[in-house]
């Protein structure tokens, strides 16, 4: 059985304010660094053999305390990247709330493309593809994946059978852990937003 810890990055100054997307240079704030250390203390008790992170700083900085505690390297995977928010990257939520397509994208994720960015189904395909490859490579492994809210929600929605148009019903707080197991029978989600 493969056990995957799906971990949203810890707090930074953009959460609830703007859409950083894939903008480089956005690291954790003081609260986020505290969250990452606390997360590492709790997860260090688990038999994690591999740590993989999105290349964005906020994810890597969340993963590093656990890597230090377990004496593991953090592998980087573009498959775990944030949604490509295209033209909406670096815009505030206040600005986006005046854009009709933003509202449509948030209610109809399965059929809308971010202007010059990704469709949610593309995000889900790359994330689920990465999870399936890890299961094939590590059929008895325990792996920590550090990434971003919407991509992790897309994985959880897939394995729960929840349509992408409803996946925002899945709450994922900063530094939240969700646990997914995969074996030869049926996937199981052991917890979400812990």
UniProtKB/TrEMBL annotation:
This is Phosphoglycerate mutase. GO terms for cellular component: cytoplasm. Pfam families: His_Phos_1. One of its GO terms (molecular function) is phosphatase activity. CDD domains: HP_PGM_like. The lineage of its organism: Bacteria, Pseudomonadati, Verrucomicrobiota, Pedosphaerae, Pedosphaerales. InterPro entries: His_Pase_superF_clade-1, His_PPase_superfam, PGM_Phosphatase. It comes from the Bacteria.
């Amino acid at each position: 059985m493969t056990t995957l810890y799906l971990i949203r990055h810890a707090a930074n100054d953009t959460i609830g304010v703007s859409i950083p997307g894939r903008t480089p240079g956005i690291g954790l704030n003081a609260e986020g660094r505290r969250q990452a250390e606390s997360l590492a203390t709790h997860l260090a008790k688990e038999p994690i053999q591999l740590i993989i992170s999105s290349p964005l700083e906020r994810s890597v900085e969340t993963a590093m305390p656990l890597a230090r505690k377990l004496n593991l390297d953090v592998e980087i995977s573009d498959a775990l990247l944030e949604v490509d928010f295209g033209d909406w990257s670096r815009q505030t939520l206040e600005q986006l709330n005046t854009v009709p397509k933003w509202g449509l994208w948030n209610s109809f994720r399965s059929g809308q493309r971010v202007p010059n960015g990704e469709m949610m189904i593309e995000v889900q395909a790359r994330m689920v593809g990465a999870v399936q490859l890890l299961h094939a490579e590590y059929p008895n492994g325990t792996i920590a994946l550090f990434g971003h809210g919407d991509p992790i929600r897309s994985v959880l929605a897939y394995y729960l059978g929840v349509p992408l148009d409803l996946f925002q019903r899945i709450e994922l707080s900063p530094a939240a852990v969700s646990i997914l197991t995969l074996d030869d029978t049926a996937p199981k989600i052991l917890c979400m937003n812990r």
